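Q: Protein A?
A:
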Amino acid sequence: MDYFAAARGTLLNIVYPIQVVASFPGDAKEWMSEFFQNRDDLKEKNIALEATNLLNSVRLQKLQNLERENTRLRELLGSSFRLTERVLVAELLSVDLDPFSQQVVLNKGLNDGVFNGQPVLDAHGVMGQVTEVTNFSSRAMLLTDPSHGLPVQINRNGLRAVAIGRGMGEPLQLEHLVHNADVRVGDVLVTSGLGGRFPVGYPVGTIIAINYPQGKAFADINIKPAAELDTSREVLLVLPTEKQKTEAEAEENAAIEADSDATEKTENESTSAENLN
């Protein structure tokens, strides 16, 4: 019995390597299958993690944008409480890229009560005024437009002048002030209320440079606008007071009556001419 046990042990030791070699293809196939399966699973998990990371990144950017927008709106509303007039919040839809025409398109129109000549402000001061209105949008001309002029006054002493735009990136120009005018660098300019478009006291800008060219009757005065014309996205449209509404309606009715009278007069003249013939 011991002899057969010893022989069987010896035989098993001899056969074992053969068994290992014989089973290697199956084991290798199973190992390779598990390896590639694990690799594919890891790849899918990696793709899923990358997608989740990208989604979270986008969500974070949106949250940051919303936070910045909320900050801007708080600043905007913080400025509006100092106004006695009613205001309408609007948003910029597009900006005119023409360097000689400083205009923007707003997402408010006739249906929202927007009208031609309506003052446009941001959280810091006057941006411009509405020049064209459709049912759902409007176009506003900025202070820096070369064709824009705004009656202003120096807040320190009430001295009146007109601020003229000079194009993109250029300071405003204060017009028609003689060399001995009481003007200083750092003086704050506000709307004077003359012209009937802007109420008195809206911030316009600050004088940053004064030059006295020889041979010219007026000083060369540069103004930095108070409004952030290049970065503001939300704006305030100043709504008319009840008095202004009544005056505007009266003017409109008067214009309609004048057109009606002119049309009636033309028809009467045509009828008279036909009768004479």
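Q: Protein B?
A:
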Amino acid sequence: MGASVTVDAQGGLAGAPERVIREGLKALKTRLPQDDWPEVVIVCDIIAMGSAVKIPGVRIVGIVAQGEDQPVVPLSVPCIGGVRDLLQCVGDEEIIIVDANEGLIYVSPDARTVIRYQSTALPEPPSRLFLESVHIPARAQDGRVVTVAGIAASMKEAEIAISRGADVIIVRFAELLDREMTSGARFLDPETEVLQTLLALAAGKRLELIVSETAERVARRMSDLPPSDQIKLLGPADEPIALSDDEVKSAVCSGADRVDVPADAVERVKNLIRSLPEQNNG
């Protein structure tokens, strides 16, 4: 995955973005390790041209071409040729993912696609740190911390729950997996790739997966991932009940230390808990 740089047999690197050239020179000047050089995908008219391109201080991580010719040097990066109207459809510095195994390219991919491909390339989910105040745990007036869990049945709902500060994400896994499979996304191993994406999004927050007939498969896929106590499997009998605001008030005032709510209600509920008056037990 990298930013696109467009070259052709006529103009060569003359049209390469100045920012890319500047960042490459800066990487050389500061003696950055090659692994830390800026990464680009070459977008070109013919593979021979793309395979010959070298940009000082820049790592070329993929080549996409309109033509289906042969490279002039052996390739060590993913390459896809025969992409019709490529130069008319892709501009400079667009994020591109090249999946040569599947013969697919993604131009300006969404966050889920980026995370999915990053997850398959990394030994463990990429690190992420939540700094926004919305992620501070909800503390009632009596000092009690109340865990707020967001319920999600789709990847979008999981993203919403996480972005709004859920302490735990409850995932109806079979339903979420079915939605992902029918969304048009391409998967080699759906359960593993969806789990990796959820882990990357959650960034250390606890995931509780409601599973049924897929439980054995999910457990098996979990064994393929780096060891983690981040995921807990629950059965259908543990299906959560999403509380309304009034039910949250009642539960917290009765001493509850956890509430389960819809994904889009998480932030509002956390603020509600903080605003509830301290109960007089005398």
